[in-house]
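Side project, low priority. Logging it here so it doesn't get lost.
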Amino acid sequence: MRERFFCADAARARGDALAGTAPYGVVWILVEYRGGWPHNGFEGLDLDPETKRVVFAAAQAVRARVLLVRRHGRRLPEGPPRWAVLRYGNDGAHRQQWGVWNRDEDLREIVGALGAPGEPDSRPLVLVCAHGVHDACCAVRGRPAGRVLSEARPDLVWECTHVGGDRFAANVVVLPDGVYYGGLDSSSALLAVEEHLAGRIRADHLRGYTNLNPPQQAATAAVLRAHGPAGRHDYAVVETLRVGDRWRVRVAGRPPDGPVFDVEVRADRTAPERLTCNGTVPSSAVRYTVTSLRAH
């Protein structure tokens, strides 16, 4: 019998680069759903069609990602399921709005929440992709990481549907900070999250900050790798110039005395590979490589 293929195992064997792989996003919609998750998440739920239509239209208008969430384990929480709209703020002044739903139509309140600023609230949520129906690695690697994190931080941790980058399972996202971590196991997931909550983002499992484009993510990760962990807003990208297949990214620490770094990032395409467990056609990915880092 042919050995089963797991995309995360293959990615680790190839040494696929993590930095620069976080999808863009500054607004997220979370919908707690305690039943089975369809392959395509919220879109596949058996809900009132008009409710799904208006929520999706409102989400697309602000480029919000819609994720289904649930607590880890089989015991059902008390009370009705919840929904949330989370917004990232460049200055760290994040905003959140929460509600509950008993009927499908209650989810239309999300549309109003997307049109309002929300309440200032920087309390973190930790999402662990455990969407095994979408990709086997999200279950094989995501659920053990979700269990350990849930035991350590039960009030903060949710399992979620597909966040992108199946081959980087286990994937963990901290919101509203908008920080993606990947290539995790149970112990490294716990370390990454505890360090993050303590204001020390580490580069070793960092996929990127979701308010930055991929070259900027790679540049920021290079600074953290070279000069040690730092808080989410301790560095900012202040200038980006593209020259052909290269970017020159200037990353600055907090003023007035923060250090300044010029980082050169090169983009190239990898050889075609199977990038997901379910994918049968090989495809290539864009890889971002830091070629120089200079401190001013």
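Brief comment: The two ends are 58 Å apart (CA to CA).
Revisit when time allows.
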